[in-house]
Amino acid sequence: MASKKDQQNYTAKDITVLEGLEPVRKRPGMYIGTTGPEGLHHLIWEVVDNSIDEAMAGYANEIEVTLKQDGMVMVTDNGRGIPVEKHAQTKTSALEVVMTKLHAGGKFDQKAYKVSGGLHGVGVSVVNALSSYLRAEVKRDGKLYVQEYRRGKPVADVKVKGKAEGTGTIVTFEPDAEIFKERVFDPEVVKKRLRQYAYLTKGVRIRLLNEATHEQYGFYFEGGVASYVRHLSEKDKPLLSEPVYLEGETDGVMIECAFTYIEDYQEEMLTFANTINTIEGGTHLTGFRRALTRTLNDYGRKANLIREKDENLTGDDVREGLVAVLSLKLANPQFEAQTKVKLGNPEVQTIVESFINEKLTNYLEEHPQEAKVIVGRSLLSARARIAAKAAKETVIRKGLLEGMALPGKLADCSSKDSAASELYIVEGDSAGGSAKQARDRVFQAILPIRGKILNVERARIDRMLSSEEIKAIVIALGTGISEQFDIKNLRYGRVIIMADADVDGSHIRTLLLTLFYRNFPKIIEEGHLYIAQPPLYRLQFGKLRRYAFTDEERDAILTEFAKLSRAKTKARSAELGSPSRSGEAGDLGGQGSKADGHEPDQGEALKENGEIKVDIQRYKGLGEMNPEQLWETTMDPATRLMLKVMIEDAEKANDIFSTLMGRDVAPRKRFIQTHARNVVNLDV
Q1: Distance from CA of residue 177 to its chain's centroid?
Q2: C-alpha count within 13 angstroms, C-beta hemisphere, residue 491
Q3: How far apart, in whole angstroms, are the C-alpha atoms of residue 610 and residue 581?
Q4: Cα 28 vs. chain centroid, distance in angstroms?
Q5: What is the CA radius of gyration of the chain?
Q6: Which among 75, 137, 369, 551 counts the fewest CB atoms within 10 Å?
Q7: Which positions are catalytic?
């Protein structure tokens, strides 16, 4: 409890009031989520959202985003233009109010906008606050109005800069270096998001101009989310010739939905509210899922596709292989945060469920052939689920996957502190043996795996768990799998994949990453998965030893050794009082045989003002390292280099895993042909 003295020291003068846009600059993460790359790109989305709102209201049909060479971004639309006349409440221009005041805009009383993505009204003002420079240009009433700002503060009043044809708004901004350490926009991220906007606002033309590369992209889709589903299902052959497309309005909510099925075990479901991607779903997703399951069961029974003795389809059955997009436009969306990742309107669940049930029932009755394919796909999943249940229960049973029967090949650590413990999943028994000798037994556990594990992208869980290698990994992790998964039971704070730096090692890493991405996504999302980075080379020059992780690092170290050799030669020559002779550097500190260039794995010679003897060992596998080298380079927390596995773009990650590890060969072939030229060091 605070004493009287404490109370006297804490008075009204200690209360800080942040005015205008100061709160945004003080705590930017509250408004854009992060000041990293995701938050940087969020600035563009906030400005574009305003243009999209104009398009959804029917006043704009062209939007253009320009990534300028000087690092600025310009967003242009042909909407009505932000009002510029004096605002009655603030006595300043409405443009200045919108640009400098939080919770100011035309999106609250539904007079200017029936629906809007910018619910909170802080979008463009937040961009202004976090920009070192922003320029707003408005074409309205035949005039061009301009106002400039620096870090959210107006440089001068709104001024007329001449005549203008048409209407619209142009916002040009430069992210503030005081807020963002990295201020480089990724054109691919911007392109993908703008394409998404175009799918969700059909009939609107959206362009992206990249001044640095002179590239231009245009997006225009009349098909709306049906076009989006076709795009998403391109990597596989859809089971339906055309996606199921449902559109309409109920209780003031405009709903647009499209879906199809592919021959895959995964579900790809994207949901949106007023073009905002609700990546964590929400009430609209719950309503869709409930309606899909109920409607397919009702129709399947009515059409005798589901026999009387058969049990009902489950949610998992009807979502296996589903590719779907659900887009809502509503007047008062309730998002869980400013970054709008989850929709919370409770009434939306019932609205969506009723709408999908009615529209989908009509579709199935009017398209019996397509209905048979859809229900048949779900029945196939149900039969596989039932057949797998017995096999699955023999593996997933109480105690077996909860750390009570750890695999014999696991060399566990002694620490009981899971947060401080590490599990190395090591390729091969040889490397596993070295790792067991190299490790710190207190906190490092070693699990060797033999060869390439099963590709889980192509396997159901019962087949997965029949693999001894995968079963060993699941038991060692301690989290369980499938519906038994619980991240709280993870036995190690870090799970580290350690494989050889060759083609086979890369394949094994990819197989393991697929296993974790498809079955243990929480381990990745919560930052527990890493990839060890063993060196490619060991370079020895006299008593000096260096490790290189790339060919470039190897060459830099060789140059360093050459300079050191010349310096030693000059120093010795100075002591002896005679000039150095050509080639004398080769006699100083050299160790091992001089290389002739024929056996690069044993040694190489660098010629630069004379020869030096450098022993270079090229590691083809982890097993070639002795325990001391493995500890020093790859396992010692003080010196090792590791990559943390993160999911920055879930949709892109899903596409990559489906392409590289799925059944269809054609997309994989196209991917390899497209990216083969980017491979700079392929060890075959």
Answers
A1: 24
A2: 25
A3: 9
A4: 21
A5: 31
A6: 369
A7: 427, 500, 502, 504
What pLDDT score does 276 carry?
86
Q: How many other C-beta atoms can be found within 10 angstroms of the C-beta atom of residue 128? A: 27
Q: How far apart are CA 496 and CA 627, in angstroms?
A: 17
Average pLDDT over residues 21-25: 84
Q: Looking at 346-502, list the stretches that DSSP marks H as alpha helix, in order from N- to C-terminal side.
A: 346-366, 368-395, 429-438, 461-464, 468-477
| Residue 21, token pair as written in the block | 């846009």
* Residues 6+ away with beta carbon under 8 Å from 103: 120, 121, 122
CA angle 609, 614, 617 (to 5 degrees): 145
User: Per residue in 373-425, pLDDT tens?
Assistant: 999 999 988 888 777 665 556 544 433 444 446 888 899 999 999 999 999 99
Residue 131 has phi, psi (to 5 degrees) of -115, 135
Q: Which residues contact 458 (CB under 8 A, 6 or more apart)?
A: 661, 662, 663
Whole-number Å distance between alpha carbons of 676 and 435: 33
Alpha carbon of residue 451 to chain centroid: 29
CB count in 10 Å sphere of residue 328? 29
Q: Which domains does the chain have, with CATH numbers?
A: 22-219 (3.30.565.10), 225-394 (3.30.230.10), 418-534+642-678 (3.40.50.670), 537-573+585-618 (no CATH)
With 0-12 / 13-18 / 19 or more C-beta atoms within 10 angstroms meaning exposed / middle / buried, residue 596 is exposed
Q: Please write the tens of the pLDDT for every residue from 252-290.
A: 999 999 999 998 878 999 999 988 889 889 999 999 999
Distance (Å, whole) CA 567 – CA 577: 15
570-584, pLDDT tens digit by residue?
Answer: 887 777 665 544 333
Spatial strand order in the sheet of 444-449: 444-449, 422-427, 494-498, 529-532, 642-644
* Secondary structure (3-state) at 613: strand
- The alpha carbon of residue 383 and the mean position of all alpha carbons in its chain are separated, in whole angstroms, by 34
The predicted-structure confidence for 448-494, as pLDDT tens digits, reads as follows 998 788 888 777 777 787 788 998 999 999 998 877 789 999 999 99
Pair of tokens at residue 309 = 């003795």
CA pair distance 90, 486, nearest whole angstrom: 54
Closest to 225 (Cα-Cα) out of 323, 314, 342: 323
Residue 389 CA to residue 392 CA, distance in Å, equals 5
